[in-house]
From TrEMBL:
Pfam families: VWA_2 (PF13519). Transmembrane segments: none annotated. It comes from the Eukaryota. It comes from Anaeromyces robustus. Residues 865-892 form a coiled coil. The keyword Coiled coil applies. This is VWFA domain-containing protein. InterPro entries: VWF_A, vWFA_dom_sf. CDD domains: vWFA (cd00198).
Length: 1087
């Protein structure tokens, strides 16, 4: 029984664990790992390939104790698309193998082969990869980009990979460092090595250093019953990890580590020990040791080997330089950044309170520690964009240099964000502006300002603290936007909303709001970080989460001050509340306040307490100040329509929903003076109401499969309008009777219940729109707004109230129903409005009778379509009846004249007429098939059967007179062969003679003019002879005919003689002005 020490270190989150595996083996040599060599066999390797295959590889695998039957895969690469996969046993490698050299250096194909191999390997397997190349890659870019796919495969299959690379010098030229680095990034168990070997002076004694530290030769696994372990802190948890000799570091779930320390036997080590070729169980026990807590001071000491590995990994990823490698770098750096920040918080918050001054002290200490932190070194590597400009030799030296503070990688320019904005500089510039103008806030009564329950500071406290930051230049210069936001302390009403990206902040909505609780977004951010991602809770009610707040300004001067001197800080701060990330999406601040405004409308409809009323009034005032520059144009847009003659068209609001119409409505309601103004506001509310319903219906439509959208719309309208197609469809008259004057149904019955259940009930905010005028007028009443608001009915949104505010005189449910129907009938912007002329194409649903006509028009259209379908079906039936009659009549005629008259003149009944003029006419196939059927009693009695067949096949009488089908012969080979079996010798001779004389299709334009294929009446094609293809013609014509055809159609049908190439034929044709014996240039032949 062996015993191993498992050292456990407590961090801010998981336990960090360390097991040291001694040099002696716990398990015997195993061969369940895969070895892959990616080998350059380009022409420049000609004199050195033997050195690699007969010296280097045999010595390498001998020192790594490979067994004779152990498999080694070699993937070669040279010219594009010539990579090969070769498989050998080590015994073959020892004897020496021969790999011929040739061509250029294209490596991407080799990586594609590698990826295919890895995909076939089982998950959690071990892979050794060695890449050898001597020159610059001709496909470096595509090779490096494709390497990202292999990284994905390795991660998805959880493969353990030790990938190393050799720059093999066969000349003074430098091997491709970037291309080889793309393979080094595969390594995830040991530090990758970029080794230089010179072919002419090949002495390297430590080949085994490339692979001997990966532990692949020993099968020692640390296991647990559930997913509690992870080797890399950013990976997912797993049930087992591979242990190698030397130091092993991994992370363990916190709660599992606690159980382990209490004595629970959760972890175990599985190994395989072999003695004299016999497998034996070998138990290894774990001795659990709780060590000191991980701190910012000691974590590098404990993780030094791991951190060195990450630093080298970052350098490789920097050299690779693809978008995916940058993302991988960000993932590594993000962990250590959070790790260091949380360790700092853990150490410092013990002696600090929640005040802003304590927060400033903490941020200052964090900044000081960042200067010497591992994250700082990592960021220097990531930001070193000059690496891509180095040559292969310099890049190789960069990879081998452990110190990231050397001349190659130090003091590079700051990376700008993708948007071109540097939030840190932007924030600091606005802090400087705040500092310059802070005197403008003198004289404000701070006793009237609300304070955050967390920091016990008000907004003015935060602004004043931030204004002093530039005084300490050393600290201020190193501050980030995040640091400044933590201090700004804009206090507001606590709220909860779901975190999301919200690329369009207009869609932001609050789930809950707590008007009696004040907090700042600075406090929310700090508390979120300290608690490892936990939201704050409302005081007195721990079930109410706080994820954001809506800024609340009692003093207008403070709000104007921030709008003037810190507008970007307002955007960045509220972005954290909305998205939990810093980003400057325009109007984030504005829509944050609007979200509070709208939530308070919802709250006031249920609870008109004084705190709720005051909060609503504050949000209105703040929103009016912020939204004016953005939406003042909409007021002008709608007011321009006020003086226009009244018509049935809806008001044009430029496709703005209630979110964007809130400010225009607010201002226009407050400016209302008379009934005309009131009517106009009602028309705005109706237009907005209609648009909100349309938005919801459009979303439903877009969620459907594109192929079935039209069916969804039709079925939805049928359901809503209670259309019964089967019951109310127009009944047709009997066949051959006119149906043109039959009535088409246009009646419908509104399905109000369905409109509520499937649509209106899901647009819960819809009726809040009509509450705005009443709530606004009361809240901003000059005399006593509180009492005015409290005097409003508890159930404000009654059907009668909504009808009154919308200005309609018919049932509110029918109005809503009309909104839904209109949204389905006019489902896109083009059908709803004319943006160029700023005019709506849909009607104002104030006019119910007019829209009723629109609905009836649609209903009639539905039944008209069904009527047309039925009519088409009836027409087909009528045609089929006449077709059978004309076929029967033609078969039974006793003279050829009657036969041809029947075919040409046809049969007509009412408006339906049918005749058989050619082989494409309706009834022709039925007629000729009846004539071609086997000799049966009923068919044998057909009058003039052979004569009728002769006419259908040739279009002529026996004397060659054209009587049908313009004298063209039938081209259907199958029918012709069947007819020949029915003809006797006499009729067969007549047919062959007629076909030979008149069986060729006649081209338009005369004898000397060819078509675009080169065919004419002088040079007819196989098609003109009645065949669909040349092969069909060969099967049915004599050899002499085919030989003659081939000799004439040398170019036009692609039948080029073997002795003439295509280019020669073109020259010949150009020279002679002819092809296949026909003069195409209207010149005399040279012959």
């Amino acid at each position: 029984m062996y015993s191993l020490d498992l050292d456990i270190f407590n961090t801010y989150e998981d336990y960090l664990c360390k097991i040291n595996l001694p040099e002696y083996k716990y398990g015997s040599s195993m061969t369940d790992y895969t070895t892959i060599i990616i080998l350059d066999k380009s022409g420049s390797m000609f004199n050195s390939m033997e050195t690699i295959t007969r010296q280097f590889l045999p010595e390498l695998f001998t020192k790594l104790n490979y067994k004779d039957d152990q498999q080694i895969i070699i993937i070669t690469f040279s010219n594009s698309k010539e990579s090969k996969i070769l498989t050998y046993n080590f015994s073959e490698i020892k004897k020496g193998i021969d790999i011929p050299t040739e061509g250029c250096t294209y490596m991407k194909d080799a990586l594609e082969n590698l990826n295919e191999i890895l995909k076939k390997i089982n998950s959690d397997k071990k892979i050794r990869i060695l890449t050898i190349s001597d020159g610059e890659l001709h496909d470096q870019r595509s090779t490096v980009e494709y390497s990202n796919e292999i990284v994905d495969t390795i991660q998805k299959k959880n493969l353990l990979v030790n990938s190393q690379a050799i720059r093999f010098f066969t000349s003074s030229c430098q091997p491709d460092t970037r291309g080889l680095s793309s393979c080094l990034q595969f390594s995830n168990v040991t530090c990758p090595i970029l080794l230089d070997i010179k072919a002419e002076n090949f002495i390297y004694e430590k080949y085994e250093d490339l692979f001997n530290s990966d532990g692949f030769e020993n099968k020692i696994m640390l296991k647990c019953e559930e997913d509690y372990l992870k080797v890399e802190p950013w990976n997912n948890y797993c049930k087992e990890i591979n242990l190698k000799k030397g130091e092993n570091i991994f992370w363990l779930k916190k709660d599992i580590g606690d159980k382990l320390l209490k004595g629970d036997n959760i972890l175990k080590i599985d190994t395989l020990y072999q003695e004299n070729g016999i497998d034996l169980d070998n138990n290894i026990s774990l001795k659990i040791n709780l060590k000191e807590d991980i701190t910012l001071k000691n974590y590098y000491t404990f993780l030094s080997n791991k951190i060195d590995f990450y630093l080298k990994k970052l350098k490789i990823l920097r050299v690779v330089g693809t978008d995916n490698s940058i993302k991988e770098m960000d993932k590594i750096i993000k962990f250590f950044e959070d790790f260091e920040n949380k360790l700092t918080l853990k150490e410092e918050i013990k002696n600090l309170d929640n005040s802003l001054n304590s927060r400033l002290i903490l941020i200052s200490k964090q900044i000081e520690k960042k200067k010497t932190s591992i994250v700082n070194k990592m960021n220097q590597i990531k930001n070193n964009e000059k690496i891509s400009q180095l040559n292969s030799k310099q890049q190789a030296e960069y990879l081998r240099n452990v110190d990231v503070n050397d001349k190659t990688s130090k003091a590079l320019a700051r990376r700008a964000l993708t948007s071109g904005l540097d939030f840190d500089e932007m924030a600091k510039n606005e802090v400087i502006e705040i500092s310059k103008h802070i005197h403008e806030l003198d004289g404000i009564d701070e006793d009237k300002l609300c304070k955050s329950f967390y920091s016990t500071c008000n907004t003015l406290d935060g602004i004043r603290l931030v204004s002093k930051l530039p005084e300490n230049k050393e600290i201020f210069d190193n501050m980030t936007a995040n640091d400044i936001i933590k201090l700004l302390n804009i206090v507001g009403v606590a709220a909860y909303a779901e975190d999301g990206n919200y690329p369009d902040p207009m869609t932001y909505r609050l789930k809950k709001i707590y008007p009696s609780t004040f907090i700042s977004l600075s406090d929310i951010l700090v508390a979120y970080e300290i608690s490892n991602g936990e939201n704050l809770r409302e005081i007195g009610n721990k079930n109410n989460e706080i994820s954001t707040c809506i800024p609340y300004f009692e003093e207008e001067r403070i709000h104007k001050f921030l709008l003037n001197y810190a507008p970007h800080l307002l955007e960045l701060t509220t972005s954290i509340g909305m998205r939990k990330i810093i980003s400057e999406v325009p109007y984030t601040y504005e829509y944050t306040i609007l979200a509070g405004y709208w939530k308070m409308i919802e709250i006031l409809l249920k609870d008109k307490s004084e705190i709720n009323i005051r909060t609503f009034i504050n949000f209105i005032q703040n929103y009016r100040m912020v939204a004016k520059p953005h939406f003042e144009y909409v007021i002008g847009l709608v007011e321009n329509q006020k003086s226009l003659p009244k018509n049935i068209g809806s008001l044009y609001i430029a496709n703005n929903g209630i979110t964007n119409m809130t400010y225009p409505l607010t201002e226009l309601i407050l400016r209302e003076k008379n009934e005309t103004d009131k009517d106009f506001i009602q028309s705005i509310i109706r237009a907005t109401y209609q648009f909100e319903v349309y938005q919801y219906v459009r979303k439903l439509i877009r969620s459907q499969n594109p192929e079935t959208i039209n069916d969804f719309i039709k079925n939805s309208l049928i359901e809503l309008l209670n259309i019964d197609i089967e019951k109310d469809r127009t009944k047709l008259n009997p066949v051959f009777e006119d149906d043109d004057n039959l009535p088409i149904n246009d009646n419908y019955l509104p399905n109000i219940e369905i409109s509520k259940k499937k649509y209106i009930n899901n647009i819960f905010w819809l009726d809040y729109i009509v509450a705005i005028p009443t709530l606004l007028k009361s809240a901003l009443n000059e005399n006593n707004p509180i009492e005015k608001m409290k005097s409003l009915p508890d159930t404000l949104l009654t059907d009668e109230f909504i009808k009154k505010e919308l200005g309609i005189d018919y049932d509110i449910n029918l109005f809503r129903f009309n909104c839904i129907i209109q949204s389905f009938l006019y489902r896109d912007k083009a059908s709803r409005c004319d943006s160029t002329n700023k005019k709506m194409l849909i009607s104002d649903l104030y006019y119910n009778l007019h829209f009723d006509k629109e609905i009836k028009k649609y209903v009639k259209k539905v039944f008209q379509e069904e009527f047309q379908k039925d009519k088409n079906k009836k027409t087909k039936e009528e045609i089929n009846i006449l077709k059978n009659e004309i076929v029967e009549k033609s078969l039974n005629t006793n003279t050829i004249n009657d036969f041809t008259d029947t075919l040409i003149k046809g049969i007509k009944r009412n408006s339906i007429e049918i005749n058989i003029l050619n082989s494409d006419s309706i009834g022709f196939n039925d007629l000729i098939n009846s004539l071609l059927e086997e000799e049966e009693e009923n068919k044998a009695n057909i009058p003039l059967r052979k004569e009728k067949l002769f006419i259908l096949l040739t279009g002529r009488k026996e004397n060659a007179e054209i009587i049908w089908n313009q004298g063209n012969c039938l081209r259907d080979i199958d029918k012709i062969e069947r007819a020949k079996k029915i003809f006797d010798k006499d009729w067969l001779e007549k047919y062959e003679k007629m076909k030979a004389e008149f069986g060729i299709y006649l081209y338009r334009g005369g004898d000397k003019v060819c078509n675009r294929h080169g065919h004419s009446n002088d040079l007819p094609s196989y098609w003109a002879y009645g065949y669909q293809s040349i092969s069909e013609m060969k099967e049915n014509e004599k050899e002499s005919f085919i030989k003659d055809y081939y000799s004439k159609h040398i170019r036009c049908c692609g039948l080029v003689k073997k002795e003439l190439s295509y280019r020669q034929m073109r020259k010949k044709a150009k020279r002679e002005g002819l092809i296949g014996g026909v003069n195409y240039n209207n010149k005399k032949s040279s012959k």
